[in-house]
């Protein structure tokens, strides 16, 4: 790539903001490519990441931002967890310094074909499913982005022909040239609005940036049933070949599901019974459709795609069944960090639910889920430092609302109020950073305290 050559020819001064998976991956790649690199984190850096920085002699600071050094950069790589409105980000923009995501940075150092997946819900599942389809067919493929090992770290250490990347709006905010061969926009719902001026369209347009650099020999897979996507597509110019999928109507080209059949129509046709899919729920039929279209674009056989869709195991923290104790089913959907995701989770529950909800509110509108909560939920258990918004919204709609401020307390309360035949569902609607380090930490703690009930019984 031309920019890659420019980077190598000029000793660029790279500054990385954020010392987590994304930031350390970017710093490691910069160091490997012989660029001057400095990493700065206003918080503390976890030991596992500090060791990588120290082992590779990467200059870094923690619990501080040396503004003079940061603002002397030629190129700043920003971790997606740092808000756009952060003071240091404003100063970087004022200076006119190039500001990019790790996604953009790593893109310049690989010739691999990229399949990039975004959307409000289902990103992790669909990304993992496409990776499974490719891996199962013998492709030399990496899995990264917002999942697993950072894209940049893999570009530095591996030599994959393909990457399947889960891509967030925060990563797409800071791209300039990132161009996937196949992009997927699964759906849109109101999420992260606190970072987009509480403007749904602004957030949705950030998602559409996944296709902005694509050309007519690339592909854009999108959801024909999604109202916001359809509205924005009327005014957006997409250069890639557009392929829709639908759960409502047959498509001449793309994919659809009618009755008990999943159908993909491209050069050749792929058909499969929905009942044969390993994943359950309508939203996962849509995810499987999108993944199947990507598989067919990469010339994977019908037989191989069918086998992959039948053998795929759901990812952790996504409708993950933890245990059944005394007739009560415990389900971990910690990744349900917005209202729409929680809607899918509640929709999939067949029995009365004890619903665990709460955390850092992102501008949620609980009216979207109100009717389903009335129908499916027997008790609401709030889990967060500030549960006021949830309590106020549901207090006249549900008799049983409880507040907890730790996972141990939450699971103990759920055990006491659950009855045989109930489902205890962790689908928080919110991000996790008030009480937990990540949604994974929240889900892992849920599983830990649920499984301790079994050990306690055994004793």
Question: Could you characterize what this model shows?
Answer:
By secondary structure, this protein is of the alpha/beta class. It folds into three domains: 12-101, NAD(P)-binding Rossmann-like Domain (Rossmann fold), CATH 3.40.50; 110-311, Mur-like, catalytic domain (UDP-N-acetylmuramoyl-L-alanine:D-glutamate ligase, 3-Layer(aba) Sandwich); 320-458, Alpha-Beta Complex (Protein-Tyrosine Phosphatase, Chain A), CATH 3.90.190.20. It is 37% helix and 22% strand. It is built from 18 helices and 20 strands. It has helices at 2-9, 21-32, 47-55, 67-70, 87-95, 102-107, 123-136, 151-157, 169-173, 200-208, 227-233, 282-297, 302-311, 339-348, 370-376, 388-394, 407-417, 439-458, and strands at residues 13-17, 36-41, 59-62, 75-78, 98-101, 113-118, 141-145, 162-166, 182-185, 219-223, 241-246, 254-258, 261-265, 269-273, 320-325, 328-332, 353-357, 377-383, 401-404, 423-426. A nine-stranded mixed β-sheet has the order 7-8-6-9-10-11-12-13-14, with helices on one face. α15 links the parallel β17 and β18. The radius of gyration is 23 Å and the shape is globular. The model has no long low-confidence stretch (mean pLDDT 93). Pathway: Cell wall biogenesis; peptidoglycan biosynthesis. InterPro entries: Mur-like_cat_sf, Mur_ligase_C, Mur_ligase_C_dom_sf, Mur_ligase_cen, MurD. GO terms for molecular function: ATP binding; UDP-N-acetylmuramoylalanine-D-glutamate ligase activity. Cell wall formation. Catalyzes the addition of glutamate to the nucleotide precursor UDP-N-acetylmuramoyl-L-alanine (UMA). Residues 317-430 form the Mur ligase C-terminal domain.
């Amino acid at each position: 790539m031309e920019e890659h050559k420019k980077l190598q020819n000029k000793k660029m001064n790279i500054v990385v903001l954020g010392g987590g998976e994304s930031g350390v991956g970017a710093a490691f790649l910069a160091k490997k490519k012989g660029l001057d690199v400095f990493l700065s984190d206003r918080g503390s850096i976890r030991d596992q990441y500090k060791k990588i920085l120290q082992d590779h002699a990467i200059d870094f600071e923690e619990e501080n931002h040396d503004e003079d050094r940061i603002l002397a950069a030629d190129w700043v790589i920003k971790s997606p967890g740092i808000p756009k409105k952060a003071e240091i980000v404003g100063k970087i923009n004022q200076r006119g310094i190039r500001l990019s995501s790790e996604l953009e940075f790593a893109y310049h150092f690989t010739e691999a074909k990229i399949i990039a997946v975004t959307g409000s819900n289902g990103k992790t599942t669909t990304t993992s499913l496409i990776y499974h389809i490719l891996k199962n067919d013998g492709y030399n493929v990496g899995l990264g982005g917002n999942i697993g090992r950072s894209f940049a770290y893999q570009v530095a250490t591996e030599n994959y022909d393909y990457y399947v990347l889960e891509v967030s709006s925060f990563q797409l905010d800071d791209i300039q040239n990132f161009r996937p061969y196949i992009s997927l926009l699964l759906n849109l719902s109101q999420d992260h609005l606190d970072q987009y001026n509480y403007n749904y369209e602004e957030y949705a347009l950030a998602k559409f940036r996944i296709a902005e650099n694509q050309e007519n020999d690339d592909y854009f897979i999108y959801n024909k049933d999604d109202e916001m996507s359809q509205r924005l597509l009327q005014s957006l110019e997409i250069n890639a070949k557009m392929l829709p999928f639908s759960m409502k109507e047959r498509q001449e080209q793309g994919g659809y599901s009618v009755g008990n059949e999943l159908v993909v129509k491209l050069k050749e046709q792929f058909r499969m019974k929905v009942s044969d899919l390993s994943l359950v729920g309508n939203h996962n039929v849509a995810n499987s459709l999108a993944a199947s279209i990507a598989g067919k674009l990469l010339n994977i056989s019908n037989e191989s795609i069918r086998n992959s869709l039948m053998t795929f195991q759901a990812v952790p923290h996504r409708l993950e069944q933890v245990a059944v104790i005394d007739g009560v089913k415990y389900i971990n959907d910690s990744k349900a960090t917005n209202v729409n995701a929680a809607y899918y989770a509640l929709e999939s529950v067949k029995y009365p639910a004890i619903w665990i909800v709460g955390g850092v509110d992102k501008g949620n509108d609980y009216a979207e889920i109100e009717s389903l909560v009335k129908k499916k939920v027997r008790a609401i258990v709030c889990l967060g430092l500030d549960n006021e918004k949830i309590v106020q919204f549901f207090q006249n709609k549900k008799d049983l609302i409880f507040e907890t401020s730790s996972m141990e307390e939450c699971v103990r309360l759920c055990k006491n109020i659950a009855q045989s035949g109930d489902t205890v569902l962790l689908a928080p609607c919110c991000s996790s950073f008030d009480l937990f380090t990540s949604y994974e930490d929240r889900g892992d703690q849920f599983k830990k305290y649920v499984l301790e009930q079994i050990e306690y019984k055994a004793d």
